[in-house]
């Protein structure tokens, strides 16, 4: 059966690939690696997996596991992880010590909270690990067809695969392990592989088997197949492979061309057979994966410092306390007969004050432990989980198309989202959908195609918006009573009209996209469509242009039964778009044989199509170095034509003198297209004489069959000889379709002050094009391209020379930036992967970084996954700023894991990126909301929450300390044990959690309207040391007020009219009441957003305290001891109790209130102003003003549309001012 | 029509398989999950700030005055007697005097009533420098034992006053009970004895629930070390009010405890003769002993601090209110609706003139905005409800 599967005879793909697929006929004996010494020890017995069951040939199975723990290691490992937190360790010590009589509290009150905290965190860990496990299981249980022996194949899960197995992989399946390609459905043993998951490149790569294994082309052939592979040990190098195959007593060298890597995908090939070399964690992709690091947010790291600070404070006051105790014990206690100093234990032994002092130190460390809030971690965990739920639940980040909501996969980085400084983005699949649309073309100096690219549309929209924003009177009248955006669209002003036009353009475009649109073709121009081109004066050029479209490619048509038309299997999506375009123009590419291409030409005049065949004489394929491809065809008339397409610069260099007729207009069009963010290619042709061709061809064939290192150079040289004296026909503009909303999102992010770097595995040209279409680049921006020149020097010198060259380029560029005077000048850095490998070296990377930081946008192309991670690390460590990496493929995993925050696009690609990420979103555009809304909120929430947490524990902890001084430093607390236990757990936890979960300084709409608000997070304005120490000072102040007011008021006299004096329980309960009121009032002042939940929690907490005190007082006196009936009997009837509460609460909060009012009036922060505008409802009443504020409140940026539009406006104004110099002066607002 | 058939077939497959899941994955809308719950967003506008401060001032100052007045009304007589009650020949060895069983501890003091003291006049003893709040001391008691006869043996926390040498439990055990204050006072005016009532000097809940009526003192003060007072073994603990008062440990090393009540008015300038049994040893640690007679008002005893604190805070708030009013009068920036003005692209010189403090957004006072200023002012007065709902 297998014979029929093969497309033999029908087509020899390898013949199309003139360079890469040509196989020299002679065996390359010198290519054999000796394979000795360390690193090359692996031996694989093909088709004999049994051999690999025993040592030393027993290799790991194909089972992969990315989990952190397993059932046995979970408990010890997770517990170890938990107690790596300083605070937890401290509490563990405290809990252990609480079992001894040293402790000031009962043991339960120490152990229970700790167990709760640790248990909760561990449960979370377990859940996360379980999810990873399930994901692994899904991968491990994928099915693949394995040779079971005797030439029969059967499906088995991936994890059962062993080294040496022969597997059969079918089309569009992933390779289960690293395989050696033996044969494929093509009879020349090639196959196509998509390595998207490895390096992010979407173009297909060709792999070919050894000639000798070609006969193994059917299931049965493997019955007696054996072979022995010796090769390198597992390593993470994706692009090298060294090994050889012993087969039929012959040794053959193997290289990467025969290796199919795990997680890449078989494309365009029905099936392949391969033998497993590396399995599971030995495979290259797994070797490449780094252990997912546990990330902590900046705030959390800073929090550690605060904890250290508090810990120091704790030790300090404990020392003071124990020294005081020792002194008191030594000198005074012997006189305190009521303590029976002669009968003491070691804890209070006046004869050994040192020992007692040391015991006391332990007591004090536990007692003042309230300075370090144990519940902080729990509260933060709870808050973060809830925040993450909000992120998961946000409907604005739900993608209807894929049905994926946003997902916060780790919740401990929420607040980091609000502090991002640099975004490192992948291109393919992240910014673009990897779909090309033929949009415009220029033929013989005439530009065709009226459709607008997304960039143009967005830019026009922005321009109209900005102009209308400046010209307020016209539409402010129509603005009333309607929402800003609606009214903008509906307003009757001139600007409104243009807006409407734009809107209709957009909507009509959108509609077209939905159904009748042809994928890959968005061209609209009546002049060329429906055969109208025949009436065009340039009909010859147009015909030629269409023929180049239809002929100059390497695609293969596949009949599509449904439509009766063809699908094209092209190497790159551009080619697909060209073929679709050609088909739509009436030049349908309908068939290919090894030497011929068939085209169905449709002319409206004749009615039915004419099928023409062109003989393909030669094919000079595309390479990133050549930047062009050509075909040499002979048409039915015997005319030989060289058709060439390529990058404009390359083509223009090769034009003949008489071929430059349209050069000027074409290059103008090309610039326009590029500015509109389109990918351009120039088309040219050349007529060849039969004789000329045959002379050249003989040389070409000679070059092709050459063996040795010169072959490439020779081929190139020969191609150069024929690809000259071209005649320019035209150019095409293809839109690399961006994902929905990407330019807008980038614009907003840029306004929020974020820097965006693009790291892509794609070609430089592609990357630059995308840069244009995302407005990361624009015309007028100075592009700094740093590349390596090819030096033909000796190997050891070459590296040095290249390095020096790169360094020189870097220095020059830096100097250029430094010398630049124009404040609006923007620079863009474009660097390729090879150069980057030099620039990332230790001695040069800081220079590179400082240059990159000075550039408005940075684009790195052709970077490997590892380099992506290295760049990310460089930015992260070099600039010390928070980085966010976003990507969708497995090649982005390194970067995602390396960055402070990794975001995965949960699109159609594999799950690797998502699995490695901290957050996953369905589309790039959701990043705006994720950062600007959720990030901003979460940052502020967590920052305020932590500050408040420290505040409240300082208030509480310090009162304990002050009281100590009055008890002879004996370690007695004024509060009941239960009060203290409940303080953090119940009485103050819910308000602070509600602050952390529900606080909103401004609504989400406002966040999006004022992206500059995001700067508050970047500048860390809510968690800088001023603020932290401010809060601590506030805590200190409050503790002093609470303690000394209470002390003086309950000094020694009766506290009620019945004459009773206050005992310790009464003083403690009153003081505690004051604390509860003061801290809850404080949090109410801190909040700016009260839903019923906040009200319930804040006021509920205060009520809970009274209820608790009441119930506690009603319980048995054995439990409540001195607090028995304290509220009912002692405190409530005493007016002084209530008066103290009121006094202390107000006195504690007056300074904060005054400070807040002062700040609001003299030094307002951005959100204060916005809150005020909202409060006065000015946004509704004066929408003109509101809009103006919105448009102005953004970070000045050099990237994004807005910057592009601004630059355009500046440019226009510059022109205008030259004409009318007086005009510019009027714009100056007279400052009062 | 698909230029990239392979990839699209992959996508189709993915979308097909996800189609049934689609609805389940879509977050459900609720105002809670979308963080759109109706909320009030109070902000500190100048109006609110000034109102709040004035309000606090207005409330606090009268309270302060009332408490000061109440405190002034309280008449208090404090007499320190620890030194005076030691005979002069023992003044060098006061400790020996107080520890000796032989010496006469009776001592007579006379007090002049400064003002009319309305009954009840409360009698307190005050101890200074006595650490009743010391941890060792506070813990040295057994609530269970005090409460019921059944828990008599529960003396583990009472060490070293838990048991006598033969192992039988001391009731009440612990250092607190052991060191019970044992000075006594007898009052007479013009040779007429004033009755000191011990009624209701202890908390009723203590008497009813914490000190058992079936618990009688046992082995108390029978050891070699005698602490303070002895207890009548025939009276149950619930009736031993002095013990109950004493067992309520004080918060500070200086404390008063209620000794009793004199249920008659004391006239001004009356001379009260007090006969003190000076038994309690405060001499070893230099503690003072004072006898205090005091009336009470609604805020309790004499203490000016509460009133002063109220007046201070109230005054401070009024002062702040005035400051803020002045600030808004002199520099009425606030009422201008803020013009957020970020580096106008037109002209950078404007930016240069604006304060650089606010990094992104600026307030500016352009002529154009002065018109809006009044609106803002009016608005701020008109707005009464604080909650804005933004949909």
Largest sheet strand order of chain B: 1-9-3-7-6
Strand order of the largest sheet of chain A: 14-33-32-31-15-27-30-29-28
User: What count of structural domains of chain A?
Assistant: 5
Instruction: State mean pLDDT of chain B (0 to 100 scale).
Output: 78
- Mind telling me the C-alpha Rg of chain B? 37 Å
> What portion of the residues of chain A fall into strands of 2 or more residues?
15-25%
From the N-terminal CA to the C-terminal CA of chain A, the straight-line distance is 91 Å
Can you summarize the main beta sheet of chain B?
Answer: 5 strands, antiparallel
Percentage of residues assigned to helices of chain B:
25-40%
Instruction: Give the structural class of chain A.
Output: alpha+beta
Number of beta strands of chain B: 9
Number of strands of chain A: 33
The helix fraction of chain A, in percent, is 40-55%
Biased composition (Basic and acidic residues) (chain B): 141-155
Transmembrane segments (chain B): 48-70, 308-330
Keywords (chain B): Membrane, Transmembrane, Transmembrane helix
Family (chain B): Belongs to the CDC50/LEM3 family.
Describe the model.
The complex is a heterodimer of chains A (1232) and B (391). Chain A is α+β, with helices and mostly antiparallel strands. Chain A folds into five domains: 75-136 and 294-373, no CATH class; 161-288, Calcium-transporting ATPase, cytoplasmic transduction domain A; 419-432 and 740-790 and 799-917, Rossmann fold (3-Layer(aba) Sandwich); 533-735, 3-Layer(aba) Sandwich (Calcium-transporting ATPase, cytoplasmic domain N); 943-1011 and 1021-1055 and 1064-1179, no CATH class. Chain A is 47% helix and 16% strand. Chain A contains 43 helices and 33 strands. In chain A, strands 14-33-32-31-15-27-30-29-28 form a nine-stranded mixed sheet, sandwiched between helices. In chain A, helix 23 (795-819) links the parallel strand 28 and strand 29. In chain A, helix 5 packs parallel to helix 10 (374-393), helix 19 runs antiparallel to helix 20 and helix 34 (1025-1049) packs antiparallel against helix 39 (1135-1162). The longest helix of chain A is centred in the C-terminal third of the chain and has 41 residues, at 926-966. Residues 1-31, 469-516 and 1221-1232 of chain A have low confidence and may be disordered. In chain B, helix 2 (46-73) packs antiparallel against helix 9. In chain B, strands 1-9-3-7-6 form a five-stranded antiparallel sheet. Chain B has a four-stranded antiparallel sheet with strand order 2-8-4-5, with no helix packed on it. By secondary structure, chain B is α+β, with helices and mostly antiparallel strands. Chain B starts with a helix and ends in a 9-residue tail after the last helix. The longest helix of chain B has 28 residues, at 46-73. Chain B is built from eleven helices and nine strands. Chain B folds into three domains: 36-74 and 300-333; 75-295, no CATH class; 341-389, no CATH class. Chain B is 33% helix and 13% strand. The chains are: A alpha+beta (1232), B alpha+beta (391). At the A-B interface, helix 10, strand 16, strand 19, helix 16 and helix 29 of A face helix 1, helix 2, strand 3, helix 4 and helix 5 of B. Chain A: Mg(2+) binds at residues 426, 428, 888, 892. Chain A: It catalyses: ATP + H2O + phospholipidSide 1 = ADP + phosphate + phospholipidSide 2. Chain A: The active site is at residue 426. Chain A: It is a multi-pass membrane protein. Chain A: It is an enzyme of class 7 (translocase). Chain B: Residues 1-18 have a biased composition (Low complexity).
């Amino acid at each position: 059966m297998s014979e029929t599967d093969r497309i033999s005879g029908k087509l020899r793909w390898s013949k199309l690939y003139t360079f890469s697929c040509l196989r020299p006929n002679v065996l390359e004996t010198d290519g054999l690696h000796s394979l000795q010494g360390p690193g090359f020890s692996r031996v694989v017995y093909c088709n004999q997996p049994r051999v690999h069951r025993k040592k030393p040939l027993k290799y790991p199975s194909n089972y992969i596991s990315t989990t952190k723990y397993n059932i046995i290691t979970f408990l010890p490992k997770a517990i170890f992880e938990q107690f790596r937190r300083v605070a937890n360790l401290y509490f563990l010590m405290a809990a252990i010590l609480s079992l001894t009589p040293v402790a000031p509290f009962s043991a339960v009150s120490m152990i229970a909270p700790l167990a709760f905290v640790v248990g909760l965190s561990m449960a979370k860990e377990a859940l996360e690990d379980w999810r990873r496990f399930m994901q692994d299981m899904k991968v491990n249980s994928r099915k693949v067809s394995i040779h079971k022996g005797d030439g029969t194949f059967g499906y088995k899960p991936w994890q059962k695969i062993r080294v040496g197995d022969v597997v059969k992989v079918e089309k569009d399946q992933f390779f289960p392990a690293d395989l050696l390609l033996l044969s494929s459905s093509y009879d020349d043993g090639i196959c196509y592989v998509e390595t998207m998951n490895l390096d992010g490149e979407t173009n297909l790569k060709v792999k070919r088997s050894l000639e000798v294994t070609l006969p193994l082309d059917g299931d049965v052939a493997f019955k007696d197949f054996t072979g022995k592979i010796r090769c390198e040990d597992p390593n993470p190098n994706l692009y090298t492979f060294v090994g050889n195959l012993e087969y039929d007593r012959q040794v053959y060298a193997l290289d990467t061309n025969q290796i199919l890597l795990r997680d890449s995908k078989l494309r365009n090939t029905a099936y392949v057979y391969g033998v497993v070399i590396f399995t599971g964690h030995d495979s290259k992709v797994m070797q490449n994966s780094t252990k997912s690091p546990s990330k902590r947010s900046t705030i959390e790291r800073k929090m550690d410092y605060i904890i250290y600070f508090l810990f120091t404070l704790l030790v300090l006051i404990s020392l003071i306390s124990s020294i005081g105790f020792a002194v008191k014990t030594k000198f005074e206690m012997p006189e305190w007969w009521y303590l029976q100093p002669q009968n003491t234990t070691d804890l209070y032994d006046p004869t050994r004050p040192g020992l007692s002092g040391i015991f006391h130190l332990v007591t004090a460390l536990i007692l003042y432990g309230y300075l370090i809030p144990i519940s902080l971690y729990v509260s933060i965990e709870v808050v973060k989980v809830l925040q993450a739920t909000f992120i998961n639940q946000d409907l604005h980040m739900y993608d209807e198309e894929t049905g994926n909501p946003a997902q916060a996969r780790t919740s401990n980085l929420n607040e980091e989202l609000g502090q991002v400084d640099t975004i490192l983005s992948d291109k393919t699949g992240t910014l673009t959908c990897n779909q090309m649309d033929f949009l415009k073309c220029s033929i013989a100096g005439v530009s065709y195609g009226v459709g607008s690219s997304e960039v143009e549309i967005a830019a026009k929209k922005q321009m109209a918006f900005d102009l209308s924003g400046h010209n307020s009177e016209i539409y402010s009248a129509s603005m009333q009573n309607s929402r800003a955006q609606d009214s903008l669209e509906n307003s009757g002003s001139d600007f409104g009209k243009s807006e409407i036009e734009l809107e209709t353009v957009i909507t009509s475009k959108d509609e077209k996209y939905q159904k009748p649109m042809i994928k890959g073709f968005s061209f609209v121009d009546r002049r060329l469509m429906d055969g109208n081109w025949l009436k065009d004066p340039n009909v010859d050029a147009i015909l030629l242009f269409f023929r180049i479209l239809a002929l100059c490619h390497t695609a293969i048509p596949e009949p599509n039964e449904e439509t009766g038309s063809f699908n094209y299997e092209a190497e790159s999506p551009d080619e697909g778009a060209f073929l679709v375009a050609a088909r739509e123009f009436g030049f349908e590419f309908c068939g290919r044989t090894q030497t011929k291409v068939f085209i169905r030409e449709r002319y409206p005049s004749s009615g039915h199509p004419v099928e023409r065949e062109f003989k393909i004489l030669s094919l000079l394929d595309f390479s990133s170095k050549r930047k062009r491809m050509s075909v040499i065809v002979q048409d039915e008339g015997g005319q030989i034509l060289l058709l060439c397409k390529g990058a404009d610069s390359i083509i223009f260099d090769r034009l003949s003198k008489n071929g430059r007729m349209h050069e000027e207009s074409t290059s103008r069009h090309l610039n326009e297209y590029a500015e509109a963010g389109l990918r351009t290619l120039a088309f040219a042709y050349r007529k060849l004489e039969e004789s000329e061709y045959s002379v050249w061809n003989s040389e070409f064939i000679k070059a092709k069959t050459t063996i040795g290192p010169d072959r490439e150079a020779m081929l190139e040289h020969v191609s150069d000889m024929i690809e000259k004296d071209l005649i320019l026909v035209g150019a095409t503009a293809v839109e690399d379709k961006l994902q929905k909303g990407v330019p807008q999102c980038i614009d907003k992010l840029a306004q929020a002050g974020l820097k965006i770097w693009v790291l892509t595995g794609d070609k430089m040209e592609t990357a630059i094009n995308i840069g244009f279409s995302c407005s990361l680049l624009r015309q007028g921006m100075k592009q700094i391209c740093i590349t390596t020149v090819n030096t033909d020097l000796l190997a050891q010198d070459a590296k040095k020379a290249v390095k020096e060259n790169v360094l020189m380029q870097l220095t020059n560029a830096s100097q250029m930036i430094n010398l630049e005077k124009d404040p609006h000048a923007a620079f863009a850095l474009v660097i390729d992967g090879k150069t980057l490998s030099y620039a990332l070296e230790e001695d040069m990377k800081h220079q590179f970084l400082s240059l990159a930081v000075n550039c408005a946008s940075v684009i790195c192309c052709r970077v490997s996954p590892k380099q992506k991670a290295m760049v990310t690390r460089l930015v992260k460590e070099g600039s010390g700023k928070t980085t966010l990496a976003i990507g969708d493929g497995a090649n982005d995993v390194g970067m995602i894991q390396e960055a402070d925050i990794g975001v995965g696009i949960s699109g159609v690609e594999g799950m690797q990126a998502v699995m490695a990420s901290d957050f996953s979103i369905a589309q790039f555009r959701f990043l705006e909301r994720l950062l600007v809304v959720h990030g901003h909120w979460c940052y502020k929430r967590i920052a305020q929450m932590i500050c408040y947490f420290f505040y409240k524990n300082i208030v509480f902890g310090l009162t304990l300390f002050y009281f100590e001084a009055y008890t002879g430093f004996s370690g007695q607390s004024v509060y009941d044990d239960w009060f203290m236990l409940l303080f953090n757990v119940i009485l103050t936890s819910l308000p602070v959690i509600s602050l952390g979960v529900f606080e909103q300084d401004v609504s989400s709409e406002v966040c999006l309207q004022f992206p500059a608000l995001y700067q508050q997070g970047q500048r860390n304005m809510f968690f800088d040391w001023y603020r932290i120490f401010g809060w601590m000072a506030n805590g200190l102040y409050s503790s002093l007020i609470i303690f000394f007011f209470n002390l003086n008021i309950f000094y020694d006299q009766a506290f009620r009219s019945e004459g009773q004096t206050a005992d310790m329980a009464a003083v403690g309960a009153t003081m505690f009441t004051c604390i509860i009121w003061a801290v809850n009032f404080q949090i109410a002042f801190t909040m700016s957003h009260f839903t019923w939940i906040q009200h319930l929690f804040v006021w509920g907490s205060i009520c809970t305290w009274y209820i608790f005190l009441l119930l506690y007082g009603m319980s048995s006196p054995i439990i409540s001891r001195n607090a028995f009936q304290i509220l009912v009997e002692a405190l409530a009837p005493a007016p002084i109790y209530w008066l103290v509460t009121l006094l202390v609460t107000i006195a504690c909060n007056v300074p904060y209130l005054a400070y807040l009012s002062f700040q609001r009036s003299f030094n307002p922060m951005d959100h204060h102003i916005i809150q005020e505008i909202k409060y006065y409802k000015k946004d509704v009443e004066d929408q003109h003003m509101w809009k103006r504020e919105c448009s102005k409140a953004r970070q000045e940026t050099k990237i994004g549309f807005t910057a592009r539009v601004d630059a355009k406006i500046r440019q226009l104004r510059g022109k205008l001012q030259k004409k009318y110099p007086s005009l510019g002066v009027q714009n100056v607002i007279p400052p009062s | 029509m698909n230029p990239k058939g392979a990839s699209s077939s992959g996508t189709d497959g993915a979308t097909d398989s996800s189609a049934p899941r689609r609805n389940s994955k879509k977050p459900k809308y609720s105002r809670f999950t979308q963080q759109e719950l109706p909320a009030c967003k109070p902000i500190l506008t100048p109006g609110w700030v000034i109102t709040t401060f004035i309000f606090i001032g207005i409330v606090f100052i009268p309270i302060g005055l009332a408490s000061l007045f109440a405190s002034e009304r309280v008449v208090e007589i404090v007499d320190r007697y620890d030194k005076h009650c030691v005979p002069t020949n023992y003044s060098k060895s006061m400790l020996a005097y107080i520890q000796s069983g032989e010496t006469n501890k009776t001592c007579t003091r006379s007090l002049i009533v400064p003002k009319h003291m309305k009954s009840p006049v409360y009698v307190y003893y005050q101890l200074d420098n006595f650490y009743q709040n010391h941890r060792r001391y506070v813990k040295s008691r057994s609530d269970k034992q005090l409460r019921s006869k059944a828990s008599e043996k529960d003396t583990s926390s009472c060490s070293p006053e838990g048991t006598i040498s033969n192992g039988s439990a001391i009731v009440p055990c612990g250092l607190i009970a052991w060191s019970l204050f044992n000075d006594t006072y007898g009052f007479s005016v013009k040779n007429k004895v004033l009755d000191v009532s011990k009624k209701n000097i202890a908390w009723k809940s203590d008497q009813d629930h914490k000190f058992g009526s079936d618990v009688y003192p046992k082995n108390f003060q029978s050891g070699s070390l005698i602490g303070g007072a002895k207890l009548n073994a025939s009276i149950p603990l619930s009736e031993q009010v002095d013990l109950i008062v004493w067992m309520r440990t004080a918060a500070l090393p200086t404390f008063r405890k209620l000794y009793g009540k004199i249920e008659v008015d004391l006239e001004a300038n009356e001379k009260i003769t007090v006969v003190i049994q000076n038994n309690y040893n405060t001499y070893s640690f230099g503690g003072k002993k004072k006898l205090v007679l005091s009336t009470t008002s609604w805020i309790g005893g004499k203490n000016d601090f509460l009133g002063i604190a109220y007046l201070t805070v109230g005054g401070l708030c009024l002062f702040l209110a005035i400051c803020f009013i002045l600030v808004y009068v002199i520099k009425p920036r606030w009422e201008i609706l803020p013009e957020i003005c970020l580096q106008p692209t037109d002209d950078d010189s404007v930016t240069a003139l604006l304060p650089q403090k606010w990094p992104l957004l600026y307030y500016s006072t352009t002529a154009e905005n002065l018109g809006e200023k009044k609106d803002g002012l009016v608005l701020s007065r008109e707005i009464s409800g604080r909650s804005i709902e933004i949909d």
